[in-house]
From TrEMBL:
This is Transmembrane protein. The keyword Membrane applies. Keywords: Membrane, Transmembrane, Transmembrane helix. The chain crosses the membrane at residues 25-47, 53-74, 86-112, 118-140.
Length: 156
């Protein structure tokens, strides 16, 4: 039995639409990146204060905030994206994004400490938080394009 061409085209269009919905539903939202950056700066400042009360409160707020953010994102996503859908390009993009931010933050913090600046880790963390807020959505956009560029009939 052969499928009429119009039916095949409609079925493929429906598959593409569903794939776009799945990919879009599982990307990390922009607010997550801003919130993570804010939590990170707050936590580093609390630790760098060297005041036991601030360190304790900052640690608890960070842990609860991070858990809440992750829970919100996980509950928002209805399905799990397979690593094969992201592929090597996506994995390299994530690793590169992470390494650039870590290198920038650590490098700036060390330079500020060598220069005798006060609160070098906290100040060094601010551009990282900005990088997360600005770069996180760009990374998600790139990953979306990568996932949507994969063939519909891929290997399982």
């Amino acid at each position: 039995m052969t499928i009429p061409p119009i039916d095949a085209e409609l079925a493929l269009a429906e598959i593409r639409i569903r794939r776009e919905q799945v990919v879009g539903a599982n990307l990390v939202p922009a607010w997550f990146w801003v919130a993570i950056g804010g939590l990170m700066v707050m936590f580093v400042a609390a630790v760098e204060s060297a005041r036991p009360v601030f360190v304790a409160v900052g640690s608890v707020v960070y842990a609860l905030g991070l858990a809440g953010l992750i829970l919100a994102v996980v509950r928002r996503g209805r399905v799990q994206v397979r690593p094969s859908l992201i592929g090597a390009r996506g994995a390299l993009a994530i690793a590169g994004f992470t390494l650039v931010l870590v290198a920038a933050g650590v490098g700036l913090g060390l330079l500020l400490e060598a220069a005798g600046a006060g609160w070098p880790a906290t100040i060094g963390c601010v551009p990282v938080a900005i990088g997360l807020a600005a770069g996180g959505p760009l990374l998600m956009s790139y990953l979306r394009r990568v996932m949507l560029s994969r063939p519909l009939a891929g290997s399982r």
